[in-house]
Write a structure and sequence with these properties.
The protein is mainly alpha-helical and about 400 residues long. Helix content is about 65%, strand content about 0%.
Length: about 400
Amino acid sequence: MTTRTEARAEKSFVSALLPWIIAGLLAIVYLLTINSWISFKNLQAVARASGQTWTPEAYLPLFTLVTSPFHWLPVTWIPIAMNLFSVICAFFVLALLARSVALLPQDRTARQREREQSPFGLLSIPLAWIPPVLAVLVCGLQLTFWENATTLSSGMFDLLLFAYTVRCLLEFRISRRESWLLRATVVYAATATDNWLLIALAPGFLAAMIWLQGFAFFQLRLLARLFLCALAGLLFYLYLPLLHLRSDGLFWLALKANVSAQFSQIEYTFRYAPHHVQFLMALTSLLPILVIAIRWKSSFGHQPIGRRAGHLGFSSGLSRAAGALHLGRLRYRLRVAGCSGKISAPDVKSRPVPAPLLSRRVEHRLFKRLFSAGFPAGIPPQPPRAGPG
């Protein structure tokens, strides 16, 4: 009884309280390094909020609507207020990231199921806090993320909405509450009005919901509710055209400008982006997600006991390959994150940052430990020996 209580408390701390603690600590770092004035990233938004633009915007309808209340502030307060808004967005992004990592299933392979017996495959070992903390540090200390967290940008706001969508899908896997799918749909559709990338990823989002629901997804009642939620989110496309209709009467031209610009960007990316770049993006992003999504059978890909123990089954080998990709990308991001000694941006003065987060020796030991602990050798379990007699 004591062991179960401790395990529940550990999971409650890791999934409920820990995300807010780590995100709060990094938010303090962002507040200490915040950009207090105008930069190239927030120049357009500040000009719009202070009334320095002549015509309504044609792009980013949701972001424009959310940041419109800033025009009520005094003009000298608008830049710092908008940058504080970006810090708040970054805080919630990191909290959602930690929560999502804590909700990832750890029962995908037979060996994971042998070691992890908790419901829904959530990690319940004493070191379960390491994955959320490491994920938040690698993301939050990355230079690009840090710059967007301390200076207003639409990308940080869109990332917040996307992170909430992922969290909704992971919460649905555990609670099976239909409301999580409805929230994910309306938020995803609303974010797609701002960011063309979510339109390109829409088939993957639909496939994720079908994968979670199975054949129950095709119930007419659920499909109708999801369609209405998606339609409600896409209504944000009409916000800026309505502003144009009131000012210059160009409703359809403003709507066409936003939609055509998004689809032109998608077409350009898929047509003209180098194939090796597309391959690397799919290899490091889609393959690990695909491996995590499949709950491999215990008998799939295992070698007979009589063969050499070093032979890996297909499932264990594939999971190790995906894990190696994740760890390799993690190590690279940790190198280029904000751990190089200082931040330097064209619009922000160089500010000292604590010395390199990890020394080479400690970094090497950490990743060696993670690799050996998370992807053990593919030795099938031995059958119990028969007792005497």
